[in-house]
Design brief:
It comes from Paenibacillus apiarius. Keywords: FAD, Flavoprotein, Oxidoreductase. Its cofactor is FAD. It holds the Pfam family DAO. GO terms for molecular function: N-methyl-L-amino-acid oxidase activity. The chain is an alpha+beta fold. The chain is 27% helix and 27% strand. The strands form three sheets. Strands 5, 6, 7, 13, 14, 15, 16, 17 and 18 form a nine-stranded mixed sheet that branches. Strand 19 and strand 20 form a beta hairpin. Helix 2 packs across helix 6. The longest helix has 24 residues. The protein binds flavin-adenine dinucleotide. Flavin-adenine dinucleotide binds next to helix 1, strand 3, strand 13 and strand 18. The site of flavin-adenine dinucleotide has 39 residues, from helix 1, strand 3, strand 13 and strand 18.
Length: 401
């Protein structure tokens, strides 16, 4: 067994790569382990992009965390630029994916719109949250929405809530940047290291991967859809669900990120589509938040199109709202790591104080990853939970089940 680390992070995806980078940046001796080689297509982070927004109706804890995350994304971009010698010219341009990931933009402010029936309360709740928490927003009626975004087909009597500070996060690029930075700050990074078991032994925690054994003073488990597996005694209420997204041609350029925002379309209380503008000709991306299948995370996710009707559903949505969009160019299938209430679970193990865990992103967690990595790493290093994290405790998660 190697010399004990200060901290081992198990699962170097969205949350883990960020936490590992923050821990290493703070000077801790860190080991990052993942059973695959993130970014990869077996977890919850692929498909290039994620929406960033602050208008949350799940409580002000989410708004505060999102605000902190926004600052975190800008800092990450700045650190990557400084560390890897990116010129500001290159940083301000959206580079194609064949360039070095850490040399590209990580957060692209495009604004985010929420579209909903004027008489539904989805937009009213978002507006109330923005007003209560000081989040900038505008509310447009159907005519104003048509004037501002002529390529969007706004349903009759629908309204729009516009968040100018929202935007697009490049999820896979961000994970690569976090891992590269973590290594630059001195962390050890071991991909293709599945962890089978962790156990507290005296003052340390031992971590087994195949026939290798590692030890640390503190361990963070950020294993996404697999979160309950390494902590079976906690019976964490996280379930994997398959979801699909599809990209549609933007032949006219009307849906390019320079002129079109990310979007959420509320059809009813339990039916919501979301999507992102076309980035460097990627096509406009769309998915459905609720529709999918319960999945065993150990099984490779069935590819896009393998469940009947899924391409048709997204094509019909695109045709209805984005009349200038063309055919479906490609699709992808990914896993949500759902909790029953869609609330995150971030806590210290109640029986093993050297073990922390963070997960249950429930299809909306990526935007917070910079803040989750930051706050959890401070908790691990300084022993004090910051108030932002209280709402995500295991006790709260159980009450919400
Ligand atoms: C289709 C889709 C669209 C989404 N859209 C948005 C959006 O627009 N905005 C937003 O904010 N969020 C969005 N999300 C949610 C967000 O992407 C997830 O909440 C987030 O990626 C979860 O991060 P994670 O670190 O928990 O999981 P992951 O990023 O999946 O990382 C978990 C890692 O743990 C590793 N691992 C698991 N078990 C082990 C083990 N035993 N040993 C070693 N390693 C292990 C895995 O290999 C993986 O790399 C979306 C999710 C999906 C699927």
């Amino acid at each position: 067994m190697s010399r004990p680390y200060d901290c081992i992070v198990i699962g170097a995806g969205s949350f883990g790569a960020s936490a590992g980078m923050h821990l290493a940046r703070a000077g801790a001796r860190v080991l990052l382990l993942d059973m695959f080689h993130p970014p990869h297509k077996r977890g919850s982070h692929h498909g290039d992009t994620r929406i960033f927004r602050t208008a949350y109706t799940m409580g002000s804890a989410y708004v505060r965390l999102a605000e902190r995350a926004r600052a975190g994304w800008l800092r990450l971009e700045e650190d990557a630029r400084r560390c890897f010698g990116l010129t500001s010219d290159a940083a301000n341009r959206m580079a194609s994916t064949d360039e070095q990931p850490e040399r590209c933009k990580l957060f692209l402010p495009t604004g985010v719109i929420s579209v909903g029936e004027a008489y539904s309360n989805a937009l009213d709740k978002k507006e109330a949250s923005c007003a209560a928490n000081g989040v900038p927003y505008e509310r447009w009626d159907e005519r104003e929405a048509q004037r501002r975004l002529p390529a969007l087909c706004v349903p009759t009597q629908a309204q729009v809530l516009y968040e100018p500070e929202g935007g697009v996060l490049f999820s896979e690029r961000i994970i690569e940047a976090n891992l590269r930075l973590a290594e630059a700050y001195g962390a050890e990074w071991k991909p293709n290291h599945p962890v089978q078991r962790i156990a507290a032994v005296g003052n340390a925690v031992e971590v087994w991967s195949g026939n290798e054994r590692f030890a640390a003073s503190k361990v963070l488990v950020t294993t996404g859809a697999w979160l309950p597996r390494l902590l079976p005694s906690l019976c964490l209420p996280v379930r994997a669900e398959r979801r699909t997204v599809a990209w549609f041609e933007d032949t006219s350029g009307s849906y390019a990120a320079e002129r079109f925002p990310a979007f959420i379309v509320h059809q009813s209380a339990d039916s919501e589509y979301y999507g992102l503008p076309s980035v460097c000709g990627s096509g406009i991306k769309a998915g459905h938040h609720q529709l999918g299948q319960t999945w065993d995370p150990d099984e490779e996710v069935a590819p896009f199109g393998s469940c009947s009707g899924e391409e048709r559903l997204l094509s019909e949505f695109a045709a209805q709202h984005f009349p200038e969009a063309g055919r479906c160019i490609r699709g992808a299938a990914c896993m949500y790591e759902m909790t029953p209430s869609e609330q995150f679970i971030i806590d210290r193990h109640p029986g093993e104080p050297a073990i922390w865990f963070a997960g249950g992103g429930s299809g909306h967690g990526f935007k917070f990853a910079s803040a989750i990595g930051d706050t959890v790493s401070r908790w691990m290093l300084h022993g004090k939970r910051e108030p932002e994290l209280e709402a995500f405790s295991l006790v709260c998660a159980r009450l919400n089940t």
